[in-house]
Request: fold
Amino acid sequence: MFGPAFVASIAYVDPGNVAANLTSGAQYGYLLVWVLVLANAMAVLIQYQSAKLGIVTGQTLPEHVGARTRPWGRRAYWVQAEIVAAATDIAEVLGGAIALNLLFGVPLVMGGVIVGIVSMVLLLVQNARRQRTFELMIMGLLAVIAFGFLAGVFVSHVDWFAAADGLVPRFEGAPTVLLAASMLGATVMPHAIYLHSALARDRHHVEFAAHAERTDFTGDSLRPRGEEQSATEAPGAPVQPSSSRIASPTRLRLLLRATRGDVVIALLLAGAVNIAMLLLAASSLRGVDGTDTIPGAYVAIQSALGPTIATIFAVGLLASGLASTSVGAYAGSVIMKGLLRIRVPVVARRVVTLIPALIVLGVGIDPTWALVLSQVLLSIGIPFALIPLIRLTGDRTLMGEFADRMPVRIIAWTVVALIVALNVVLIFLTVTGAGVAA
Reply:
């Protein structure tokens, strides 16, 4: 039953993570290790909640939001979600293009085109009937990513006492707050929150997913064929959990137990990769000139650890870009379908969303800085995904016996409060220029 969480976890090891984590380690050493540990713990809770929503209700998070929002509000919500998805896609294409440039000397714009084409090939196998194939392909790329980014740690001289000291939460000035927000945005990603509900629903309720693929978005588009909407239900009302429509309570409990294991294992792996990147930078790149960019970090790794480790690192970066941009395009189609109630073929969407990334590459903006800024934007978008999710999973009329219990709700709302507070500080520092000045 494992698979959906491993696809969602790709969002946690994308090129934006590489840029943010390398920058953190190279500039501040082990100072912000605690940010990654805390963010990964938050991610386990958040991704499980998203998967639970899809499994229990048979609807995705964007579909629930779309069904409960007036047309103007639904469109406004879609705009912010689409901006976040675009920022994600830019980061992922940039990372893949940088990797191709490092490995083969391919010009950045051409590298972006190649990444877009390969991601389209990956997306061609994605639908409700072939989701397992898509999962296996992404899991294979995840294995390459893990090997690429973990290899360097085993040959570098990590100061484990300093790394343990980095578990104590603290900042050193406004720039570290800005960087922490970037790391948080790169770790807890809005599009992964939206997507996981669809991945879990499509994997475990194939009849719902296949029927949704054949129909336009309506209130009963997710009901199995032959089951009509009740006369007492309002048009567009969300599907309520019941054994006849989704699964028996016993089956749902089994699915949720398997999903917990899926999420914990996938995100522990993603978290290990993220921490490894920071430890590698802190141990081998601290104080080295040029390590504020991925190409500079690549050269520094080559100098400090040898060409083999540097090549493995670049291969991991390439796999990260290819996998994450495919998953990001998939997430964008889920968001659009749920909120705009229209279906755009995921490959066509891939073509359109490739354009902003190619523009960034073409005009000569520093790719690494663009990656870090994109993660800050993602961090700002997190509350818009989290708040509806926690409200829905705590709604007993929707979730029935599977609604969040009070301890889980308290923890979940505390997570939301922490993220919102960090983003308020981030916006203040950005608007006032304090983060740059410091």
